[in-house]
Amino acid sequence: MTIIKNSKSAYLLVETIVSIIILSIVGIALLKITSNQKSLYLIATKKLQFSRYISLILDEHNINLHNKDINLYDMVKNKYNLKNDFEIKELKKIKLHYSQKYKSIVNMKQDDKNINILIDEIIVKNRDGVSKFLTVKQ
Questions:
Q1: Less packed terminus of the chain by CB within 10 Å, N or C?
Q2: Please, are residues 121 and 134 in contact by the beta-carbon 8 Å criterion?
Q3: 3-state SS class at 82
Q4: Paired strand residues for 121
Q5: Count of CB atoms within 10 A of residue 56's CB?
Q6: Side-chain-facing half-sphere of 7: CA atoms under 13 Å
Q7: Looking at the 3D structure of the chain, how many domains does it have?
Q8: What one-character DSSP code corresponds to residue 111?
Q9: For residue 78, how far is the Cα from the chain centroid?
Q10: Per-residue pLDDT tens over the stretch 55-104
């Protein structure tokens, strides 16, 4: 009777250890998934924020700024009438590298008129990302 009782308690001990090991493995896997999701969320947030910054300067292209490092406030201060000190301070913190280069000229003919369309490529980058876009001028 004592042998059966000892084997049952030994079986219970092994069963408990196995279940603890399984729970530990599941816990570690969930922790890893959660940390990966958090890092992906942070990357996506930075990219979204960078895209918002770029949307402020889409029509502010200027060839005089080519290959210059500039803060976002200096690029948008003439376009927006900013009076809030907090907003100004935040925009001054955002450093961008701006480059603009000539891509091509498209010649079109319409109603016996020649139309030249100039296409420039603008690249704006900072530590959070790079954004390229094309501008079209007539």
A1: N
A2: yes
A3: coil
A4: 101, 134
A5: 16
A6: 4
A7: 1
A8: T
A9: 26
A10: 777 766 667 777 888 888 888 887 888 888 888 888 888 888 888 877 77
* Strand arrangement of the beta sheet that strand 113-126 belongs to: 68-71, 95-110, 113-126, 129-137
Widest pairwise Cα distance in the chain: 110
Q: What tokens appear for 104 in the block? A: 């091509």
Please name the residue that has the structure tokens 């603890």: 20
- State the amino acid at position 32 in one-letter form: K
Q: What angle do CA 126, 90, 74 make, to 5 degrees?
A: 70
Task: Read off the pTM.
Answer: 0.53
The range of the structural domain enclosing residue 124 comes to 2-137
Q: Give, for 101, the enclosing helix (H) or strand (E).
A: strand 95-110
What gap in Å lies between CA 34 and CA 133, rounded to an integer? 35
Cα angle 25, 31, 33; round to 5: 105
Q: Cα–Cα distances in Å, from 90 out to 23, 26, 49, 93, 119?
A: 46, 43, 13, 5, 32
